[in-house]
Design goal:
162 residues; three-stranded antiparallel beta sheet; alpha+beta
């Protein structure tokens, strides 16, 4: 596993710690965990626990292996605050590299290493504003990221460069 990250860590292999405690555990293949024995009547069957409610939601960010870079993320961003986050990123030399939506809130990843030289975005209440996209294609922008929300709105990012 460490070979995947070889280029990001110290080149001196003799200084690298090696953990083998997981390899020392003896695991019997094919054995299942035992059930908790509960006092049941003769004709009763054990019941499974049922969890009620919504599952927990969380963001998972996946990054490629790179040398240190300038990157920023925003999450749980309402429509009304999107412009503020994006413009601040543009001022700092960052461009949007990825967008996502959950529960009608937006998540953005902004990155200095995208290779983009210009970027425009459209937050539309209709899913995929075709007219706006066509206008940007005529200006040599291309779609670099897109996301839709459950309320039918969409966020389209179009970029130049790369």
């Amino acid at each position: 596993m460490i070979s995947f990250f070889e280029s990001l860590i110290e080149p001196c292999i003799s200084l690298r710690p090696i953990r083998i405690d997981g390899a020392l555990k003896v695991i019997a293949v094919g054995q299942k965990r035992g059930r908790l024995v509960i006092n049941l009547e003769e004709d009763e069957q054990p019941t499974k626990k049922v969890r009620l409610g919504n599952p927990a939601t969380q963001w998972i960010s996946v990054y490629n292996a790179h040398r240190p870079m300038k990157q920023r993320y925003h999450y749980n961003v309402a429509d009304s605050r999107l412009h503020q986050h994006v413009e601040k990123g543009y001022e700092d030399g960052l461009y949007i590299s990825c967008v996502a939506s959950a529960a009608n809130l937006w998540a953005l990843i902004m990155d200095a290493g995208t290779g983009f030289c210009s970027q425009v975005y459209d937050l539309s209440t209709v899913f995929l504003n075709k007219d706006w996209i066509m206008e940007q294609w005529e200006k040599n922008y291309y779609i670099s990221s897109i996301a839709g929300a459950t309320n039918g709105s969409s966020l389209v990012i179009m970029s130049k460069g790369w």
